[in-house]
Write a structure and sequence with these properties.
By secondary structure, the chain is an alpha/beta fold. It has one domain: Rossmann fold (3-Layer(aba) Sandwich), CATH 3.40.50.10900. The chain is 39% helix and 21% strand. The chain contains 8 helices and 10 strands. Helix 1 packs across helix 5. It is globular, with a radius of gyration of 20 Å.
């Protein structure tokens, strides 16, 4: 095991007592690293955030080097593992995971650590200690989180990007106005609070996606997040894959909207509103709270359906 980590694969002092939950294959040697995280769940409307992180992992040929054991952080009746067949015969169980990757950022003298995973069900403070402890051990200078929010925005306009962060200088670098939202939060909010207390600069970048197209994964939101990230770093990414996927997404959603007269009228109204508003006005704090409440209601309904299926 490399220097700086104890025999269990954790920072010797930072992660004492919870080391067994962090599984590290190797400790990368990084240049002024920045950490980017995305979590599926409430933080990931239309999969915009997770699609962005997945794209960066592929585009930069990122190397997986660690993950967090899901045993202590998930209720498996709530977030169920999946069974898959290999070679049509052997069954394999895929557990919910939060995995860390590292890569060099093309055109930059910095490296990136990508955390790609699922919002945990349990022990958020312990989970956050693991993430923050590893970031500190690796010398991470900044933590950015990607998020995507279902909101009253049209698919036919630019994706509104909003942000939240406790570091005003970082928010200025990102070109984002600080959010005034107060209300329920997800693991992203807990992680940023821990960063603030530890004195580690952090910010959250949110892409707003149309709630009426919530079932369609949004490469357009992923593209907007990657573009904002690239602007922050001062580098340009090869984004052809996301751009082509965005064109297809636009066409498919437009066709679906045009097929329903009522939806078409509603989208037209959203377009008129979007043209009259500043980006910082969308989404509002009320929209965030309403979206969280909707997610929790649907989440509870799905959990009860799974329980009923298990009993039957």
């Amino acid at each position: 095991m490399s220097d700086g980590l104890n025999g269990t694969g954790c920072a010797g002092n930072t992660l004492s007592g919870i080391a067994e939950s962090l599984r590290i294959d190797h400790r990368p040697d990084l240049r002024r690293p920045i950490m980017v995280t995305s979590f599926r769940g409430w933080n990931d409307g239309a999969q915009g955030a997770s699609l962005a992180a997945e794209f960066l992992v592929r585009q930069w040929d990122a190397t997986r080097f660690a993950d967090i054991d899901p045993e202590d952080f998930f209720d498996f009746q709530d977030v169920r593992p999946h069974v898959k067949l290999e070679d049509g015969l052997t069954r394999r169980i895929d557990w919910p995971e939060n995995a860390f990757y590292h890569a060099a950022i093309p055109g930059s003298e910095r490296d990136v650590v990508l955390l790609q995973g699922i919002e945990p069900s349990l022990k958020w403070r312990t989970f956050t200690e693991l993430v923050l402890g590893l970031a500190q051990d690796l010398g991470v200078e900044t933590i950015l989180t990607f998020g995507a929010l279902l909101a009253d925005v049209p698919h036919s306009r630019d994706v509104p990007i909003t942000g939240a962060g406790s570091d005003s200088a970082l928010m200025d670098e990102l070109g984002l106005a600080a959010s005034r939202y107060e209300g329920p939060t997800g693991i992203v909010g807990v992680l940023h609070n821990a960063c603030r207390e530890a004195g580690l600069p952090s910010a959250s970048i949110w892409a707003a996606v149309p709630h009426y197209a919530s079932l369609a994964p949004s490469p357009k939101a992923a593209l907007a997040l990657c573009q904002k990230f690239g602007g922050f770093l001062g580098v340009e990414f090869e984004l052809n894959e996301l751009e082509e996927a965005t064109e297809s997404y636009q066409e498919q959603v437009s066709s679906a909207v045009e097929a329903d007269e009522e939806t078409a009228r509603y989208v037209l109204q959203l377009e008129e509103q979007a043209d009259a508003l500043d980006e910082a006005d969308i989404p509002s704090g009320d929209a965030l709270a309403a979206e969280l409440s909707r997610f929790l209601r649907e989440h509870e309904a799905r959990r009860r359906e799974d329980e009923d299926e298990t009993r039957s």
